[in-house]
Design goal:
312 residues; alpha/beta; seven-stranded mixed sheet; 6 helices
Length: 312
């Protein structure tokens, strides 16, 4: 097994991880940032980003993250395409073992592993993923030109997905369990003004149906929460946008998590283990914005620097 030693290991390369990498590298900590399973984080599956400072015009999420990762590299952070699958925190320095069978020995860790899309958990859902069911309009909208699709959810992600899908699909249904949206007002206004979007309120999906061999989505069964009435909705694509779960499976029984699985922190970024900090959506379930994730990344890097000055 190959062994790599570093003062600071950053897990995740979204806005939190990249910002932490930039600050840490500029402090001569020579950090290593591990990409993980989704290099660039959630923004790589986002379309137009209009609320990140510094851009007078919308910037595509993948382009923004590509720039952030390049910036981290340019200031001296080593970026590695790998995933951590085992973490040993009983002894110090800490040891993390990767999917590529590399042992990383580190004095400090910044956890910026973010969050992942939630699924409905229905029978057939997994079967039709990639065959009509998706959690990423940016990735898959192209395949639904002039077709009928549905989006599940009522937050920013759901409405952003619906608006993006109108560039391709002939019709977009937004299915929501409530009678009003949680999305920002500007997104709501755009959605309500778009002739291609129709809303199905107070409704849940109970079945996903289609053909097999090959798998092709044909319709969904929906049910009114108000009166229990059911009906079939013929669609070609279903996009799930009902929220996210923190990527903290690796840290169960190792670090303190709350009941929803988010890392517990004190003073913004401190976990319960010395020298280990959290940044971004892996602990922040209130703001969950790219700019706040970047802010937490900055704080984590500064605190890591302070810690390392005393420890190493």
């Amino acid at each position: 097994m190959k062994t790599v030693k570093t003062k600071l290991l950053i897990l995740g390369s979204g806005p939190a991880g990249c910002t932490a990498a930039v600050y840490a590298a500029r402090s001569n900590l020579n950090p290593i940032m591990i990409h993980g399973t989704q290099p660039g984080g959630q923004l790589t599956i986002t379309t137009d980003v209009e609320n990140y400072p510094g851009f007078s015009n919308p910037v595509m999420g993948p382009d923004l993250m590509e720039s952030m990762i390049l910036q981290a590299k340019n200031v001296g952070c080593e970026v590695i395409q790998d995933s951590i699958n085992k973490i040993k925190l009983d002894n110090y320095p800490y040891e993390l073992i990767s999917q590529k069978n590399v042992s990383y020995i580190t004095n400090s860790i910044i956890i910026a592993t973010g969050a992942s899309a939630k699924w409905l958990g229905l029978e057939n859902e997994a079967k039709f993923r990639g065959h009509g069911v998706s959690a990423c309009a940016t990735c898959d909208a192209f395949f639904f030109k002039n077709k009928i699709v549905a989006v599940v959810g009522g937050g920013n992600t759901a409405i952003e997905e619906a608006l993006f899908l109108t560039k391709f699909a002939s019709k977009v249904f937004v299915i929501h369990r409530r009678d009003k949206l949680r999305a920002e007002k500007i997104l709501q206004d755009r959605a309500f003004a778009n002739d291609k979007i129709s809303f199905i309120w107070n409704t849940e999906i109970i079945e996903i149906n289609g053909e097999h061999n090959p798998n092709i989505l044909k319709n969904i069964q929906i049910r009114s929460i108000l009166n229990g009435q059911e009906k079939k909705l013929e669609i070609d694509g279903l996009f799930i946008a009902i929220g996210h779960s923190p990527n903290t499976e690796l840290f169960k029984n190792v670090l303190n998590l709350d009941k929803e699985g988010y890392l517990k922190v004190s003073n913004f970024v401190f976990t319960n283990k010395k020298g280990i900090f959290a940044a971004g959506d892996v602990h922040d379930k209130i703001f969950r914005q790219a700019v706040t994730a970047a802010g937490f990344g900055c704080m984590a890097a500064i605190e890591a620097e302070k810690f390392l000055e005393l420890e190493v």
